[in-house]
């Protein structure tokens, strides 16, 4: 039930300037795993932190033999995770972020279910999200098929839809068999959505998954109201195109190519809605929005997304599919003036 090195589960945690939160993250793992009868390790990769995080990590490494620290030059979370995965000795690997934590009594259930389904390629569970400090937690639960093994085809058919992509794409709500995790790589050039690309690379080599029913992880997402997180519209659109191009072959591999088109439509609408949320738009913003709408990448877009799309979004998709950038921009201008839909 354990690897040749005796480790059952490895936690990989990139850390960058997380002096205020990393203790809670580590404590949530140590306190729970020390009550579980399976060997574990925590690999913290300090990604060039400039605050007290490196000292905190070193103190924890002295206190807990299961915890090791790698101090690296700043290269971003993807590079830090790759360092951690390369060093991981566990039969299974989990990712956590240094500003998040596991809910009390959640890890014992995860370990128990992973052991009961030994050899499973990926184990997926739900999570909670907090969008502002001291705000309420919103649960994102797994649906219908929770609590059983299933083919990756059936899993993707259920979850590769607009309303459930977060459960599909995030790293933190999964446990990976080590060979699956080590077979995939993080694209350091992707500015947004690298987690999704990594996960789809795992789905491609993993014919079966297990979906658990608990919401085990707390995601502290205080910037959830912005898709771009401070990035420009063209950066976000370029990233989303890369995601669609990366996930489409995997969905097609499982006979689900139409769902890739559906997700493409949702990403496009998301970027345009980001444009609409801007309190003031510049001529450059308008130029970028029009360019996105007339991008030839959109020619095969679905014109509806499973009946969940309103009139305005449906018209935007029609403009994008036909390359009518200026007409789409006019619709956006009218929407901004609250004269349409």
UniProtKB/TrEMBL annotation:
Molecular-function annotations in GO: hexosyltransferase activity
Name this polypeptide is given: Glycosyltransferase 2-like domain-containing protein
Gene3D superfamilies: Spore Coat Polysaccharide Biosynthesis Protein SpsA, Chain A
Residue ranges occupied by any Glycosyltransferase 2-like domain in the UniProt entry: 10-144
Pfam family, one: Glycos_transf_2
Any coiled-coil regions, as ranges: none
Organism: Bifidobacterium callitrichidarum
């Amino acid at each position: 039930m354990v690897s040749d090195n005796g480790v059952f589960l490895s936690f990989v945690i990139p850390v960058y300037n997380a002096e205020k939160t990393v203790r809670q993250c580590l404590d949530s793992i140590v306190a729970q795993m020390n009550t579980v009868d399976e060997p574990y390790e925590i690999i913290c990769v300090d990604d060039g932190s400039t605050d007290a995080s490196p000292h905190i990590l070193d103190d924890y490494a002295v206190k807990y033999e299961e915890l090791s620290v790698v101090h690296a030059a700043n290269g971003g979370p993807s590079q830090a995770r790759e360092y951690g995965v390369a060093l991981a000795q566990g039969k299974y690997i989990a990712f956590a972020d240094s500003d998040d934590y596991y809910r009390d009594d959640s890890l014992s259930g995860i370990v128990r279910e992973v052991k009961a389904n030994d050899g499973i390629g990926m184990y997926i569970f739900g999570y909670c999200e907090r969008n502002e400090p001291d705000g309420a937690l919103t649960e994102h639960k797994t649906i219908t098929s929770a609590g059983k093994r299933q083919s990756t085809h059936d899993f993707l058919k259920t979850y590769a839809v607009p309303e459930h992509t977060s459960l599909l794409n995030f790293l933190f709500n999964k446990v990976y068999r080590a060979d699956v995790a080590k077979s995939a790589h993080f694209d350091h050039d992707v500015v947004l959505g690298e987690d999704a690309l990594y996960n789809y690379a795992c789905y491609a080599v993993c014919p079966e998954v297990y979906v658990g029913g608990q919401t085990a992880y707390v995601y502290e997402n205080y910037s959830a109201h912005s898709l771009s997180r401070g990035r420009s519209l063209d950066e976000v659109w370029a990233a989303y195109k890369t995601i669609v191009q990366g996930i489409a072959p995997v969905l097609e591999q499982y006979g689900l190519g139409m769902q890739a088109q559906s997700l493409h439509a949702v990403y496009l609408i998301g970027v345009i809605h980001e444009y609409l949320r801007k309190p003031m738009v510049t001529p450059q913003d308008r130029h970028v929005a029009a360019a996105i709408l007339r991008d030839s990448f959109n020619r095969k877009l679905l014109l509806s997304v499973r009946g969940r799309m309103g009139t305005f979004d449906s018209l935007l998709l029609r403009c994008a599919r036909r390359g009518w950038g200026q007409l789409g921009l006019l619709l956006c201008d009218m929407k901004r003036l609250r004269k349409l839909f």
